[in-house]
Every structure is written in structure tokens, then in C-alpha cells.
Amino acid sequence: DIQMTQSPSSLSASVGDRVTITCRASQTISSYLNWYQQKSGKAPKLLIYAASSLQSGVPSRFSGTGSGTDFTLTISSLQPEDFATYYCQQSSSTLWTFGQGTKVQVK
Amino acid sequence: QVQLQESGPGLVKPSETLSLTCTVSGGSMNAYYWSWIRQPPGKGLEWIGNIYSSGSTNYNPSLKSEVTMSIDMSKTQFSLQLSSVTAADTAIYYCARRNGDGYKSNWFDPWGQGTLVTVSS
Predict the structure, then answer these.
(1) Is B75 in a helix, a strand, or coil?
(2) CB within 8 Å: B100 and A91
(3) Residues sharing a CB contact under 8 Å with residue B9, sequence separation 6 or more, in sequence order
(4) pLDDT band for position B104 (50/70/90)?
(5) pLDDT of A45-89, one tens digit each?
(6) pLDDT tens digits, one per residue of B1-60
(7) How many contiguous H segments (helices) and E segments (strands) does chain A have?
(8) Which of B45, B63, B111 to mutate to probe the A interface, most A CBs <10 Å?
(9) Measured between CB atoms, does B111 come within 8 Å of chain A?
(10) Residue A49 at interface with chain B, using a CB cutoff of 8 Å
(11) Are A87 and A38 in contact (CB under 8 A)?
């Protein structure tokens, strides 16, 4: 199985901050990496697919970079509605796996 | 736009079979893969498996012996059965549409709202 490790597991930030979340794969996955946002009590929502493509309707303050084993999700200026948990997910292998999540909390 | 809605019992007894249905509305099911994903309370996400509109399936190897998926295009529904459940199968179960290039670039969108299934006697 390909293990996905996110860091940090949680972070505290303020509105307007630049926030960066990292996802590392246990083996190379090219650009087969997606990012989701999950708010409390809600289903995950796709933000970024194929490492850097912004899903339609997602604000441009969200961006994704990386390839191989190391990936980054950046929120350029954190908004009140962005406090949530973020997950990465790989589809390189036949067993698709998620990271453990990064919770973005109010500072 | 496509919407998905899970339905099924919220409580299942240990050793019995969990059965859930996902109803798709607002779009065609044809030529898409449809997925089940679960999330134990307070924990992360686990992909369970996919079913194609033709009925072909692929499952998470860790669950393969217990999982069965089926699809009913006439009812615009697909279903999950998980046999011999234990307390470890207590989770929110989500259905989702798989998108992508059909090879390695795949992602889940949209998702249903999820349904909590508790395994308890």
C-alpha cells in the first residue's frame, strides 16, 4: 500500500494568514494526488485534482503543487469559511489511500 | 448537477450484513465509476471500492472478501453490501462518483452527504 503522511496534523491560524499543508507519499505517485476539504459534519469536497488543477467553483486562493512524493496545498489568504480538515488522496496504485488529515483551527 | 444520496439502516448487529444504497439524480450514471468510502467517527477516510456502469467492480483488498457492490441503472442506484460486520465497521459511509482519466488520475466528486452506520447488538 502507498502510505500518505500529512503534516502538520493540526495548525492554528488567523484570517488572512498564508497556510501550507504538506502531503508525502511513501513511494512516487507522479501527479496522481488530490486534495479535499471537509467541514464538521459534512462530506469531503474536492478542491484540487491531479496535484495542481483547481476544481471548478473553488476559490483561487487554494493552490496545489508537487510531483513524485512531495505535495503542498496552499491557502494564500485564509478566510473564515476555510477552517476545516484537509485530506490528500493518491490514485497511483490500485488501492487508493488518503492522508490522515490536517485540521486548520482558529488561532 | 449530479447529486448522490445514501440510504439504509443506521444500526446493524455484529456478524450481520450491512446494506446501503446510493441514489443518483441530476445526471447519467452511464460510463462512470461509482464509489463507496467510509470514515469511522473522528477518524480518516478509507476507500471501499468502485463499480462501473457496466457492473465491473474493484475493491479494497483489505475488505475484498466481505464487500459486494451492485448497480441498477434503471433505478439510477448502486449498492454496497458488507458482510460479517464488527464494531470496527462503525462509520459514516459515503457514496461518490469517480472522475478522472480512467487510468491512474482519479478523484471523487461529487459526494453524497453520508450516512452513519453503527454496528452494535
Answers:
(1) helix
(2) yes
(3) B18, B19, B117
(4) confident
(5) 999 999 999 999 999 999 999 999 999 999 999 999 999 999 999
(6) 999 999 999 999 999 999 999 999 999 999 999 999 999 999 999 999 999 999 999 999
(7) 0, 11
(8) B45
(9) yes
(10) yes
(11) yes
